[in-house]
Every structure is written in C-alpha cells, then in structure tokens.
Amino acid sequence: MNTVSNYLSALREAMKAQGLDALVIPSADPHLSEYLPAHWQARRELSGFTGSVGTFVVTADEAGVWVDSRYWEQATKQLAGSGIELQKSGQVPPYNEWLAANLPENAAVGIPSDMVSLTGKRTLAQSLAAKNIHIEHPDDLLDQVWTSRPAIPAETVFIHDPAYVSETAAEKLARVRAVMAEKGADYHLVSSLDDIAWLTNLRGSDVPFNPVFVSFLLIGKDNAVLFTDQGRLNAEVAAALQTAGITIEPYAQVADKLAQIGGTLLIEPNKTAVSTLVRLPESLCLIEGINPSTFFKSVKSEADIAHIREAMEQDGAALCGFFAEFEDIIDNGGSLTEIDVDTILHRHRSARPGFISLSFDTIAGFNANAALPHYSATPESHSTISGNGLLLIDSGAQYKGGTTDITRVVPVGTPTAEQKRDNTLVLKAHIALAEAVFPENILSPMIDAICRKPLWQAQCDYGHGTGHGVGYFLNVHEGPQVIACAAVPGPQHAMKKGMVTSIEPGLYRPGKWGIRIENLAANQAVANPQETEFGSFLYFETLTLCPIDTRLMDTAMMTDGEIDWVNRYHAEVRRRLEPLTEGAAKAWLIKRTEPLAR
C-alpha cells in the first residue's frame, strides 16, 4: 500500500534520475480548473493533504506544502509525521521565492506542463532567473510514481435542456468571432471548461460539482473544433454540434492541431496550460487577453434570470424542509453531526424538480469549526451538534435553470448576547450592500467598502472576499466580477446588468464561532431613475429565498430601515415559497418569516 513516505521516496528517486533539483506539483489541470478531476489530483494523493488548494514542493532534502490560512489547521493534522512541512502562505515566502533562495545556481526545477499556465510558468521563471535556475517539464514523472493514477474522465456529455437556453451555440460563437475580428485574431483557443460548456450549450460530469466536461475548443473565422473523446457524444449531441458548425477531434490532439495553424491566436494565458502550447509554430503570433466568452456568460439574459428565480424557489423550498427536520431532531433531543447536515440537505434538494447535483461540498461548521471559512467535516474529524452554539451552513446546488449558493447561521440552544451582536453586525453589512445603488460599469472591488462599513465601524473585519460571480447551471465561482477590497480593480471587473454575484460578509472568532450571511443577487437597472445626466445606475435584486434567523438579530442595534429590509425580504420569501411547501416545511417557513419588531 502506498503511503506519503513511500511516495516521497519514489518522487526523489525519479527526480534524481531526471536530473531535477526540485519538483513543483500544483493544484491544477490543463484547464486551470478550481475543482480537479481525479487524474490531476497529484498534490492531494502524493502529499496526503486533501484541501482543495495548495502547492507541493519537493527537493532532495526538504518538502513542503504551501497553503493559505483556510487550511492551516487541516494541513497541520494531515502532514504530521510525513516529512512534509506546512508552509503558511502569507507568513512565509511564496514557493517560487523559496526555491530561488534555497536552490543553487544552475539548478533544475520540474513542473508538469499540464499543471501550469503560461502565466504561471512566466512568473516562476522570473523568480528563478537571477540564479539561472531553469524549468523543465518531466511529464512522465508523476505516472512513474503514481502507478494507480485514475484515467482522464470521459463521462457522457449531454445537451443543456433547450427549455433553459436563451441563445444558440452558433449565436454565441458569432459573438466571439466579432471580438476576434476586433483583436485581429485568426483563431481563438478556449481551455477553460466552463467557457466551453457555455459556448456549446453542453454539460457534463467530469469535474465534481461543476457540470462541465474535459475538452478544448478551437474557434476559427468560419469553423470550430471541439477536442474531446467522440465516444462520449451521443447522436443528439453530435447533431447539435454539427448544427453549430463545430467538428470533433480527439482530446489528446489539441497540441498537434495547434501546430498546423498560422496567423494569430487569441488565448487567455492564465487559463491555458503550457502543455497545450508546446508545438506552436514559431511564425504564429499570440494575442493574449481574457476569453471573450468569460464576459458574455457573466451577463445573464432576462430569460436566464427568470429560470434562476425558479431554481431559487425550488432550492428555498428544499431548505425549508431541511431546517424543519433539523430543528425537530434537535428540539426533541436527537443527535446530529456536521456530516448528517450534508446528508439531510442533499436528500431534500435531490427531491426538487430540476435538481442535478450539489454545486460544491457542503460546509457545515458548529461553533469553533465555523470560524474556519472553508472548513470541511470528514468522517475522521467532525463535531456533534449539541448544547449551545451556532451552526453555519454554506451549501448550494445545480439545477437545470441555475446554480445556487447560500449561507445561513442558526442557533442551537440559547445564543449569547455576544453571538447575537456579531450576527447583527454581519446582517447590517449584508443589508448595506444588498440595498446599494451603484453606477453601471463601476469596478466591482470598489463597492466592497459599502458592505464592510458596519463591521469596520465596530473595528471588525473578515479575511475573504465579499462576492464572487456565479454561473448559470455552471461553476458556482466564475468571473470576471469579484467584490473584494484586496483585489486590484481592472477593466475586467466592470459591473454589468444581468451579472449574478454573491453577497457574503462574515465575522469569525477563532476557537469560538463563525458567522456568514450569503445571498445571490442580480444586477438590475434602476427603474424610473430620478436622474439621467450622471449615467445609468444598477441595484441588486436579491435572488436567494430562505429566511435569515431572527433569533440571532439584536434589534436594538438595527435601524428602522434595516428592520424594514428584513421584513420585506421575509414577506417575499414567504409569498414565493409557501405554495411550494407543505406540512412541517410550511409551518417552519411561516414561523421563521414572522415580522421582526423591536
């Protein structure tokens, strides 16, 4: 049986055989995906650290995993005794600087070419240049060590139900080609899987939680080629591709195909792996920029948003059923664990029309565990929900008509005054941004301060961003918009009508509890504007439908306007969910949407 120590020894032997002084294994695949197919989970398998993000670095004498603060506690436990050191990102130099400082002149660093983007390689090379440390791509090394490596997935691809699609693949390709013409590009290579799924109106299940399929798409001026395994496409999918003017070639042949083209090629260097570009002709000119489809898919049509509203209703009804069952068990002295929360939630969601899958691993954290923003309960490490405390649940689902992502905090037993204060501060922050009106095209990081103001006034803050874009039956995290004061504002962050973004402020007290209140919201144009000479303005239409627990609200801290916002929101939640619920779920909904009063 392979162990981390066996893997570490085998890696060093393979590195020595190939003349490598260091090996870098990132959390990445050829599509630079957030969630990885098992074939590219080398960092997880070989290091033993199972968090979703991290970089594993091995030298002849040392080994380390670089992870951010979300995973320090988890990594400490999982790396103990392995010979691999936890490197706390933010407190130690980044791995590229560490390599530059610790390797000798003229050393060789290996990194798999299918696990590093063009931008990533350039950044690494720049860090190593002063000592003439060169980069190599030992693409067979992982297969030698990881002999049980899973195959590249090739699950069945299916058509996104036409009833939920407002634009044909041919129309989407035409929009991309218009941008290509503006940029002077003869070809455009798309490596990011959510862009490909959106452009083709196809979906898959190759990647956990994301309804995408492993592929590349090469778009020419009057043709397009989808690189994926033919055997996974049924007659209906093949016919749809033909109608869109898309031909099919094997997934593994993308680099060979690129070797045959000439002129100019548009790519997004952050989302294109080095392996994909290995055979480019010297005469080919690269044009670099964000994929045009990234901007297009971020702006949902009116029809898309109508379907998202329906998905939110189904999701909200499922949550009513879950919370009714949860509270009944707890109130009657039953025992539940954080893992049980995920199981019960999945059961209620999977019973709703249009449900496909979860949109990410459910985060259910009780008390101190909730202070870890990306905590994940495991069979080996989880808490039982009992006594007094706060339970944070961050969860979501994929429906044919939309993607959901919601966080709620509920009291177990009797909440303290301090817990209610913290929760009310987070609620005030959420309302501040939910009620904001802002200029169209404002750069999204700039509005983060609106949300944080109530927390900052209390000298509180949180370390994560306030909002991320959300796909349409696609990835739960998508760009280009991001509401985060730590992000450097750029033109790609312009807020447009039709974008769907999360609003999720939080407050975390290590060792005690964590609070986050998250709804999804759509950018909408202000109706009947009071002014027109200052440009167009947008507001947030709240899409998520689920009560926010009033038992954790300290009304003495709230303004009349904030209480009114809660009551208006709850009235809308009740109006739209009551027809979809019955029995205990309906009773819970009515109870939790009673008007809030001082």
- Determine the mean pLDDT: 95
Main sheet properties = 6 strands, mixed
Q: What is the count of helical runs?
A: 17
Q: Please mark out the parts with pLDDT under 50 across 5 or more consecutive residues, or reply none.
A: none
With strands numbered from the N-terminus, the spatial order across the biggest sheet is 4-3-2-1-5-6
Helix content: 25-40%
Write up what this structure looks like:
The chain is α+β, with helices and mostly antiparallel strands and 598 residues long. 33% of the residues lie in helices and 20% in strands. The protein is built from 17 helices and 30 strands. The strands form 9 sheets. It has a 6-stranded mixed beta sheet with strand order 4-3-2-1-5-6, sandwiched between helices. A 6-stranded mixed beta sheet has the order 12-11-10-8-13-14. The chain has a 4-stranded antiparallel beta sheet with strand order 23-30-29-26. A hairpin with a 3-residue loop joins strand 2 (55-59) and strand 3. Helix 12 packs across helix 13 and helix 12 (302-331) crosses helix 17. The protein is globular. The chain starts with a helix and ends in a 6-residue tail after the last helix. The mean pLDDT is 95.
